[in-house]
Amino acid sequence: MRARPSASHFVDGRPVEDDAGDPIDVIYPATGEVVARVHAATDAVIETALASAARAQREWAETDPAERGRVLRRAADIIRTRNRALSELETLDTGKPLSETLVADASSGADALEYFGGLAADVTGQTMRFGQDWAYTIRRPLGVCVGIGAWNYPTQIACWKAAPALAAGNAMVFKPSEATPLCALKVAEILVEAGLPAGLFNVVQGRAPQGSALVADARVAKVSLTGSVPTGRKVAAIAGERIKSVTMELGGKSPFIVFPDADLDSAVSGAINANFYSSGQVCSNGTRVFVHEDVLEEFTRRLRVRTEGARIGDPMDEATDFGPMTTEAQLRVVERHLATAREEGATVLGGERLDRPGFWITPAILAGVRDEMTVAREEVFGPVLSILAFREEGEVLGRANATPFGLSAGVFTRDLARAHRVAAALEAGTIWINQYNLTPAGMPFGGSKASGIGRENARVALDQFTEVQTVYVGMSPVEAAF
Ligand SMILES: NC(=O)c1ccc[n+]([C@@H]2O[C@H](COP(=O)([O-])OP(=O)(O)OC[C@H]3O[C@@H](n4cnc5c(N)ncnc54)[C@H](O)[C@@H]3O)[C@@H](O)[C@H]2O)c1
């Protein structure tokens, strides 16, 4: 199986190759086969991308916002008509099963393009009065923005960043993860096909050096990163030194709380989605599953039975619902965490390496996990669900919040007052009540504490790709002291 992009990069409206850059092999995680090869961007490619973005952005900012919106909505329509091919590419890039990618990747990208396409003509300022004088504000695009992606949702991440940036009149240079370089190239092609002028959305490949070169460039006004906390610290430091604004979508160790009155089957489904979807490679996953002592045994029993029913196999078979890890390195991280959890006293059910080519490990349920164990403190980013017992609401809230992360949280209960009381007390950017991991384009998504700065999606993302310019209007003669 081969994926063969027409070139490594997409710059100034067309595919661009420069094989002087370091090679990056694209590996299909289900088999370990090399399916394509791209090259990291050379300085020349980065220069062309930034120069074309800076040039194109000036005109785009002057374009009628309604026209900008039409381009994005046309791109959304094209993505939907090609959903199957794009989903197969996403599966090839990430190893996620087609049963997921057909519904959650290209279509989520299309949702964002459609949503921000609809909002493009509604970027408005305010007016305010000061006696006879008054002032008004204009929301202006920032200029050239850089997007840097993680490997778990390559199409979605590219679209979630491009859509608000472009709707607001910015240009973007996007660097996908080196592990999944293919999907963003398709997004770029489709945007141009939909009528996006050349230079407004460029894709350049590479690793940390290419990412940091983009962030450091004086022409870049803003950086939106999806990645780990350590990378976030580095990227925010480069941006901070140069006073650039940032959106940081980083990692998590989110709590998922099951009260004794919860609909237990629904809570089990929620926990499965919050831990095993995309083989657990989801930033917002609720990996610390706090279960009330009264329902602990029954919850664990149902969870085990359901998890044993997971159909693990060929990701291209639509009947499969659990695929491999995306990279061999991440598989090793998961194995290391499982070994440490065993040493620290957790009972590990599942989590077995499958004897076949590719990066396969079965879903793991860890029982008897305590707060101080490594697996309860560090992000694993794999199919590892930790069960922790609790007794009281106040106790579980304290434990849930005792983490440097603050991305997400989940609460399962039938008690309305408790659901909202607990949600209000949780230190997390996104909280689901009796649901988990749903992220419609109209809902702000992002983290607090070490999990991030800023939000993606919804109107707030548009605000964060613009800045406020204030104009004060004097209506009377000016007085002065002398
Ligand atoms: N909050 C969210 O929305 C969200 C979504 C998906 C993934 N994530 C997080 O992403 C992580 C997994 O993804 P990953 O392993 O690709 O993350 P990563 O931090 O290793 O890499 C992310 C991106 O940053 C680039 N990069 C690495 N070092 C850089 C540097 N010094 N300067 C500039 N760019 C640099 C990488 O090449 C890659 O494109 C997890 O921590 C996960 O929680 C967060």
Q: Tell me the helix content.
A: 25-40%
Average pLDDT number: 98
Strand tally = 20
Low-confidence stretches: none
Sheet of most strands: 7 strands, mixed
Number of structural domains: 2
CATH superfamily of the largest domain, by name, is Aldehyde Dehydrogenase, Chain A, domain 1
Bound molecules: nicotinamide-adenine-dinucleotide
CATH topology of the largest domain: Aldehyde Dehydrogenase, Chain A, domain 1
Quaternary state reads single chain
Please, how many helices?
Answer: 16
Shape: globular
Structural summary, described in words:
The protein has helices spanning 43-62, 65-81, 83-94, 98-104, 106-119, 154-167, 183-193, 208-216, 229-241, 264-273, 293-308, 328-343, 374-377, 393-401, 416-425, 458-464; strands at 9-11, 14-16, 23-28, 33-39, 127-130, 133-141, 144-148, 171-175, 201-203, 220-226, 245-249, 255-258, 288-292, 347-350, 364-367, 384-390, 408-412, 430-433, 452-453, 466-473. By secondary structure, the protein is α/β, with parallel strands linked by helices. It has two domains: 9-251 and 451-469, 3-Layer(aba) Sandwich (Aldehyde Dehydrogenase, Chain A, domain 1), CATH 3.40.605; 255-433, Aldehyde Dehydrogenase, Chain A, domain 2 (3-Layer(aba) Sandwich). The longest helix has 20 residues, at 43-62. Nicotinamide-adenine-dinucleotide binds next to helix 8 and helix 9. Belongs to the aldehyde dehydrogenase family. It comes from Hasllibacter halocynthiae. This is Betaine aldehyde dehydrogenase. InterPro entries: Ald_DH/histidinol_DH, Ald_DH_C, Ald_DH_CS_CYS, Ald_DH_CS_GLU, Ald_DH_N, Aldehyde_DH_dom.
